[in-house]
From TrEMBL:
<protein>
    <recommendedName>
        <fullName>Citrate lyase alpha chain</fullName>
        <ecNumber>2.8.3.10</ecNumber>
        <ecNumber>4.1.3.6</ecNumber>
    </recommendedName>
</protein>
<dbReference type="GO" id="GO:0006084">
    <property type="term" value="P:acetyl-CoA metabolic process"/>
</dbReference>
<dbReference type="GO" id="GO:0009346">
    <property type="term" value="C:ATP-independent citrate lyase complex"/>
</dbReference>
<keyword id="KW-0456">Lyase</keyword>
<dbReference type="Pfam" id="PF04223">
    <property type="entry name" value="CitF"/>
</dbReference>
<keyword id="KW-0963">Cytoplasm</keyword>
<keyword id="KW-0808">Transferase</keyword>
<dbReference type="GO" id="GO:0008815">
    <property type="term" value="F:citrate (pro-3S)-lyase activity"/>
</dbReference>
<dbReference type="GO" id="GO:0005737">
    <property type="term" value="C:cytoplasm"/>
</dbReference>
<dbReference type="InterPro" id="IPR037171">
    <property type="entry name" value="NagB/RpiA_transferase-like"/>
</dbReference>
<dbReference type="GO" id="GO:0008814">
    <property type="term" value="F:citrate CoA-transferase activity"/>
</dbReference>
<dbReference type="InterPro" id="IPR006472">
    <property type="entry name" value="Citrate_lyase_asu"/>
</dbReference>
Length: 513
């Protein structure tokens, strides 16, 4: 069958089940049901502290076929996923499903567990490195299921993803299970992605390298959801939190894109008191923030909030009084960790509060402007940030689809050509974010506005900005690179891409090496 975007999707996928096709970004909104939270009551004087991860696995009655979950606030410095799966493997368990909010290159040991059948399923919002390559080559028994950040929270709360044991990498934890991310040698800041896991898992285990006497203060994840506590030597390397660029680009092309984007934002009329903003941690995205900062200072604009994974640059804008508050689901660098610890207006948000479409209001719904990246974008404004043009998994939505749906102005910034390949194509290899939620594409060669945004077109067509159709940008790129050959893939589905509402927006098929 084909979904509303014309993507060919099997009606049934082995290892996934029956498919509900994507019907539109807002088609599923309405009354929803969340599954009940089941808790096992603790009795007075009951001890939660255990000696080892194996003890915790045994206390939780782990069995073949169970689902274990992890969060990624330590990003490419996380040790906990590897430690737990090593113990699971030693216990001889099989057919384990891993529900990790994101998977990074440091999780390479997972590849061997996939090959030996210890792990047969993966849920994640973002996957990069050796695990992504293994999945792309069809080595995982069942298709990986890829969510958005808000979609993962929705799936857990709805019972679509049922977690048997949640393992929380806890930078600080007391003996009764109160957790925070702002103290200890592994302080990583806000723990927003771990919140739905802690609340909805059958069992929750805190793994910490900073065990302190009761009570831990402040408390981010409460003792009421934690069954057991295990102390280990180290839960991770905080240097791995900064994986990828978090510095403003110095590339003239990137700066040109950023300059035009900031001008576009000003002309849109959104850059006024109460302005709300989110941008990624890439060099061009941060350059947009730098130009927006100049405009806010010049025009004496006081913003309401900035949101997302917070970087040190956004902290600087906040500390200079350009925003009244920060909403933080995870910290992208150590400056953000310090700010979150020290400033009460630098607030945490759970993954559900951040982007879940099936609650009474996500933070993304209050965004004025969101700056997004793209691996590919097609003439219908559909964006791919999940696979490369060769079909290899190299990322995932994260908050891409959530913020695009919520923001008043969702802007994709990218160079027109990368690696000698055009970024604008007839049809993206994989749809991550539907074109109906993308408003503008800004490249160094020109700006394309989604035809549905007639209001923006009217505001911008009389300016000096190089406004053109997205087809013109595609033709311009192809004149420089030639028309790329269509990638050939096997029919086998290796990953299912769920939109934030749980419908299937696309699938990833096995690559041909």
């Amino acid at each position: 069958m084909r979904n509303i975007l014309g993507r060919e999707i099997p009606e049934y996928i082995q290892g996934y089940g029956e498919v509900e096709p994507f019907k539109g970004a807002f088609a599923s909104l309405g009354q929803v049901v969340k599954k009940p939270v089941k808790l096992e009551s603790a009795v007075p004087k009951q001890e939660k502290l255990l000696d080892s991860i194996r003890d915790a696995l045994q206390k939780c009655n782990i069995k073949d076929g169970m689902t274990v979950s992890f969060h990624h606030h330590l990003r490419n410095g996380d040790y906990v996923l590897n430690m737990v799966l090593e113990e699971i493997s030693k216990m001889g368990l099989k057919d384990i499903k891993v529900a990790a909010s994101s998977i990074f290159p440091i999780h390479e040991p997972l590849v061997e567990y996939i090959k030996t059948g210890v792990v047969t399923g993966i849920y994640a919002n973002y996957i990069s490195g050796p695990v992504a390559e293994a999945i792309s080559r069809g080595q995982l028994k069942n298709p990986a299921i890829m969510h958005t950040h808000g979609g993962r929270a929705r799936a857990i709360e709805a019972g679509d993803v049922e977690i048997d044991i949640a393992f929380i990498a806890a930078p600080t934890c007391d003996t009764y299970g109160n957790i925070n991310g702002v103290e200890g040698k592994s302080a990583c800041g806000a723990l927003g992605y771990a919140v739905p896991d802690a609340q909805y898992a059958e069992k929750t285990v805190a793994i910490t390298d900073n065990l302190i006497p009761y009570p831990a203060c402040p408390i981010e994840i409460s003792q009421e959801y934690v069954d057991y506590v295990v102390e280990v030597e180290s839960i991770g390397d905080i240097k791995g939190i900064v994986s990828g660029t978090t510095k403003i680009t110095k590339d003239p092309v990137g700066l040109r894109i950023a300059k035009m984007t900031s001008e576009l934002i000003q002309i849109s009329g959104l850059l006024k008191d109460g302005f709300s903003f989110q941008t990624g941690a890439g060099g061009t995205s941060l350059a947009v923030a730098a130009y927006v900062k100049e405009l806010m200072q010049k025009n004496n604009v006081k913003g309401s909030f900035a949101a997302g994974g917070i970087t040190g640059y956004m902290v600087e804008m906040f500390e200079e009084g350009l925003f009244d508050a920060l909403f933080d689901v995870q910290c992208f660098d150590l400056k953000a960790v310090k700010s979150y610890r020290d400033n009460k207006k630098h607030q945490k948000m759970s993954a559900s509060m951040y982007g879940n479409p099936h609650n009474k209001g996500a933070v993304v719904n209050n965004l004025d402007v969101m700056i997004l990246g793209a691996t590919e974008i097609d003439v219908d404004f559909n964006v791919n940030v999940t696979t490369g043009s060769n079909g290899m998994i190299m990322g995932g939505s994260g908050g891409h689809s959530d913020t695009a749906a919520g923001a008043k102005l969702a802007i994709v910034v990218t160079q027109l050509i990368k690696g000698r390949l055009p970024i604008v194509v007839d049809r993206v290899t994989t749809v991550t974010t539907p074109g109906e939620t993308i408003d503008v594409l800004v490249t160094e060669r020109g700006i394309a506005i989604n035809p549905s945004r007639k209001d923006l077109i009217q505001k911008l067509e009389k300016t000096n900005l190089p406004i053109m159709s997205i087809e013109a940008l595609k033709n311009m790129a192809e004149e420089m690179t030639g028309v790329p050959e269509k990638v050939e893939l096997y029919d086998e589905v290796v990953a299912v891409i769920e939109y934030r509402d749980g419908t299937v927006i696309d699938v990833v098929r096995k690559i041909k090496d």
